[in-house]
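Example S7 (structure tokens).
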């Protein structure tokens, strides 16, 4: 029996979108298909290390664990700094420039995403104790994927 997936719609910034559109054209697949493939690749890494070992570059938690991270790099997943990710997130709601992409996650992946959002504590992502936006986590993972590393925002160089 196939596991049910949860759909999350998200607008990505123009630079990420252009990267995805260009690669999707080369591979002759839809942008959403490519975006999901890339994100699942990064999600696998997150699930492997666990949400507790996912840190934001140069955060207080990262700086406190820096020596441990350098010794055991494979045990950690690093997200780009929040201010860096912010530059790659769409802020305008023009559907022609910033159409939504539907991302699909398994229940355990959604649980991990929720833990990551709560851990990042970015304003407006959680309201009244409920996660309302996964955009920083998802954009951070896309920026870490080798395809998007040319944008110069990746925190992972493995």
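Recovered sequence:
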């Amino acid at each position: 029996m196939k596991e049910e997936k949860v759909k999350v719609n998200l607008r990505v910034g123009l630079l990420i979108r252009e990267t995805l559109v260009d690669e999707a054209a080369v591979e002759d697949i839809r942008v959403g298909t490519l975006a999901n493939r890339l994100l699942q690749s990064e999600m696998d890494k997150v699930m492997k290390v666990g949400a507790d070992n996912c840190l934001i570059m140069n955060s207080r938690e990262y700086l406190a664990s820096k020596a441990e991270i350098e010794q055991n790099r494979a045990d950690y997943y690093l997200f780009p700094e929040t201010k860096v990710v912010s530059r790659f997130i769409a802020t305008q709601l023009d559907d022609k420039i910033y159409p939504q992409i539907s991302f699909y996650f398994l229940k355990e992946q959604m649980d991990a995403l929720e833990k990551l959002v709560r851990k990042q504590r970015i304003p407006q992502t959680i309201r009244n104790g409920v996660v309302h936006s996964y955009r920083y986590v998802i954009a951070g993972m896309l920026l870490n994927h080798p395809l998007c590393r040319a944008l110069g925002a990746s925190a992972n160089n493995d």
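Notes on this example. DSSP finds seven helices and six strands in the chain.
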